[in-house]
């Protein structure tokens, strides 16, 4: 294989043009890697391209692309997690990190493509930098790729009809996969060994991609953590209702050309309208349906939905039945909902006094509150509530401390993650897919919650992207094991336990 860029120049030739990167020595591993940041994989989706499917990038044949800085973060909804000031609509860029030496395998290095989470409304591919990625993953002989995709209303607004079907963030992800398949061999990658890897909304995104028959041409298998297309926050037609309120707030609902009006709105006006919709219709109650449509600490207004375009189906079950069969790893943490209960920005947050005094009566009240306003059970609502209470009261016996508080966290975990996760895994297995499932119950000192036992949402990110643990610690043993599981799957296609 002709392996470009391994002669000190760090210049890689692709069909789009030359790309200049830089070398870097990993901190703890001392491993030398080559890094290419901010590579455009699509045209900037602004102006007339806003609220449209992405278009392939234009070539830069007459110049050298300096891929030495991360690209802009995509514009995110104005919310408590909007940490990024360096954002732009011109944000569809990709990052690639590879070993500095050619692969001993003539087919090239296997490729991991990371899709970040953070609720479809915030986040960026630069979240974890590159030092720990080199030490923990690239040093084991893989190429690591990450990319940005459109978020919030920019990525998931929909008119609910042909004007703007939405799911633009998912179409961005598909465009990134196509781009990798065009430039991957130029960087020494093996296009027959591409693994999608993601957490939370990133994991749910991968679930969606596995259901798209075109997308599955561009990757081999998937490794998803704490996210499922079955979750209410990962697919729901309620996005249409929120989008219509959003259009009205921007004054475009009575415009003869709605999309032309939407494309002319400023970023700030779009952010403000999204925030206003969130305050007025996003968290108006804590019913089961509302909870299922929320992820971290506020309602997810804009997320994927079955538009019969990105996925040619109307339900998850229908989509899985017709989806290509690929190997998939699915993992959960033992108490995903811990952040919901203990973070002060969450509508489900419990004060210190509530936590201290939380008992059986509080749990019963919580269940009834979650079911309040629901009409799906009709006259049987009280009976259903009682069944739920009895089931979880029995579950509380397994806990040695704060039993009903822990049971409440378990209930929220079941609604948001566990039940959707199990449904998806079973449907995939019934459809003949190889599905590997595991549960993470290791509580590190860093992520320990002294009130509730278990591993909360997002805790596994430290394992793959965090700093090296202390030598000889339990954290080091667990990190090594988790990375082995991932890398064995990436390289061999199955899980070795």
How many β-strands, per DSSP?
A: 14
Structural class: alpha/beta
Q: Report the mean per-residue pLDDT as an integer.
A: 88
- Uncertain spans, ≥5 residues at pLDDT below 50? 1-8, 282-298
Order of helices and strands: EEEEEEEEEHEHHEHEHHHHHEHHHHHEHH
Give the CATH topology. Rossmann fold
Number of helices: 16
Main sheet attributes: strand count, strand direction, barrel closure: 9 strands, mixed
Domain unit count:
1
Q: What proportion strand?
A: 15-25%
CATH architecture: 3-Layer(aba) Sandwich
Q: How would the global form be characterised?
A: globular
Approximate helicity band: 25-40%
- Superfamily (CATH H level) name: Alpha/Beta hydrolase fold, catalytic domain
What would CATH call the class? Answer: Alpha Beta
What Rg do the Cα atoms give? 23 Å
Label this structure with key terms:
disordered N terminus, 497 residues, globular, alpha/beta, Rossmann fold, nine-stranded mixed beta sheet, 16 helices
Task: Describe what you observe in this structure.
Pfam families: COesterase. GO terms for molecular function: carboxylic ester hydrolase activity. Residues 11-493 form the Carboxylesterase type B domain. The chain is an alpha/beta fold and 497 residues long. It has a single domain (1-350, 417-497), classed as Rossmann fold, CATH 3.40.50. Helix content is 35%, strand content 15%. It has 16 helices and 14 strands. The strands form 3 sheets. A 9-stranded mixed sheet has the order 3-4-8-10-9-11-12-13-14, sandwiched between helices. Residues 1-8 and 282-298 have low confidence and may be disordered.
